[in-house]
């Protein structure tokens, strides 16, 4: 059996910098590599046991492979008050956060959002909503309100002019960020088998199922649950359905000259309403779980930013559903401004919010497939 040697670093005095987090992560991973009790828990520990030394690239890859389910912490015999002070979920969360921030464009925006994301998200939503509401108050000749339904409040051309750049530029920023990450962890050319296996893991949220398949104990040390896995799936599927609804509406408008508003049983409405319901349920559930969970097992610096991202998604989905239900009410201009302001805020803040974790985690799963 391997002996366990550990550098004498007080885990309660961990430095909140990239280098400090890396040093602490390396120390703890060396202990885990010697112990190997958690080998069957998730994808992280087989990857840990494959290594003899831990470079910064390897630690960054492991951090983005971690789903912060916390099962390893509650099973570990070396957590505080043991002198080893092992807290893998926390230290990998810090490294993971640093990797997102360091690769973001610009990095200072990512740091600002994750430091005070909830307040920033609400402020940006209110600001955009107010701006869009004021645009709607312009004289008809200036606003060109020539359409029906929502387009009578804000013209189709105005929506295109505002939202296309607001979506494409952040997506480009995320693509550059993920490319930087991929290069930093030594990613190489992908094969179809790598992509299929990684996507299957994402679809099933396999790493949130726990080693036994009973789920993780994210919100409660003594209770295994699949709640976090289910809420993640609802959020992911709901978001994809809403994106599909927007795509379907775009194709119908430009290819088939079928302009909004659409009926309830049209493809955009069916996809959008079902996606909105799932997204609202998923984000509400994730928010409640995060309120219950132990903040000392994550990166405390960014709790507000993570909640800010959840709030943004919840506002987008819930305001969209409210807009559909109350489309004939006198509150339509205000509801439309709130919904479009939420969507615009989500787009603009995407490269700096926790939205990037999905892309980074997929990249980490792809890289893991290459390394197996």
From TrEMBL:
InterPro entries: Citrate_utilization_prot_B (IPR012830), NarG-like_sf (IPR036197). The chain crosses the membrane at residues 118-138, 158-178, 234-256, 271-289, 309-329, 335-352. This is Tricarballylate utilization 4Fe-4S protein TcuB. It comes from the Bacteria. Keywords: Membrane, Transmembrane, Transmembrane helix. The keyword Transmembrane helix applies. The keyword Amino-acid biosynthesis does not apply. It comes from Amphritea pacifica.
